[in-house]
Amino acid sequence: MSKKKIVVGALQLPTLGMNATRLEFYLKKAKEREAEIILFGEYVLNSFFGDLINMSKNMINRQSKKHISTLKRFAKEYDMVFVAPIVLEKKDGFHKYIMKITPKSVKYYEQQILLPYPHWNEKAFFSNPIKPIKEPMSFTHKGFNIVVMSGFELHFEPFWHYVSKKKADLVLIPTASTFGSYDRWREIIKTKSFLHSCYILRANRVGEYVDDIIRWKFYGDTMLVSPSGEIDMFLEDKESMLIEEIYKSEIKNHRKAWGFNKELKLRGWF
Questions:
Q1: Total Cβ atoms within 10 A of residue 51
Q2: pLDDT tens for residues 141-175?
Q3: For a surface tag, which of 80, 88, 111, 266 has the fewest beta carbons within 10 Å of its beta carbon?
Q4: Do 48 and 209 meet the contact criterion of CB atoms below 8 Å apart?
């Protein structure tokens, strides 16, 4: 009997231009390797935040509409699911979302907590509402429970409560990590995978952004981490693509061995 598995991928890219040739190159390769779900990093379909805040509304909307249309077409052509951050304009301004595009549908998850720091103030720029935290995006694929959260939301425990509640097998995290956060991100992801008995696929962007003071370098390190907290595969700091298989048996074995959820269930947590 074959093991129950799915094939997942992550694209490690800088901001894509409006031409789809580069993206199609990677998706053709992903299809050859039987990839079913592809995760994009943050600020890949749209320009990085530092550029975005100085762009015209028309240009931002053009980027978003063009890439949504392209991914809809590729989802049907390659029979894939795409998960990618996107910026959309509403009546009160621009909002930051993560979208899931399948061959048949498009769904959006509005990011709930945004970066609030002086050098990177998404909270001030975007019009995402401040409300009580609700469940992040979740869906099933071939019997695997999948949860999606933004890179910044990873830092907040309520989102991980939902990971446990949903018995997530895989968590997808798009990021735009930079500066000296390389080691910290690795340790957080490894720890969360182990404690929540799930795979985590993190897609980080690459490239640079230069402001008036410093050069921001996005270091990649896109990775797949197993429920044991071990890094199964990672990319270095160049544009590339990660494709890996994940197995239901590895998740089940970890949950059986450690029994974290079992102990919580006995205490009425679920």
A1: 15
A2: 999 999 999 999 999 999 999 999 999 999 999 99
A3: 266
A4: yes
The 10s digit of each residue's pLDDT in 17-26 is: 999 999 999 9
Q: Which CATH number fits domain 5-266: 3.30.565.10, 3.30.70.360, 3.60.110.10, 3.40.50.10240?
A: 3.60.110.10
Alpha carbon distance 150, 113 (integer Å): 9
Taking the model in full, what pTM does it have? 0.97
Cα distance between the two ends of the chain: 32
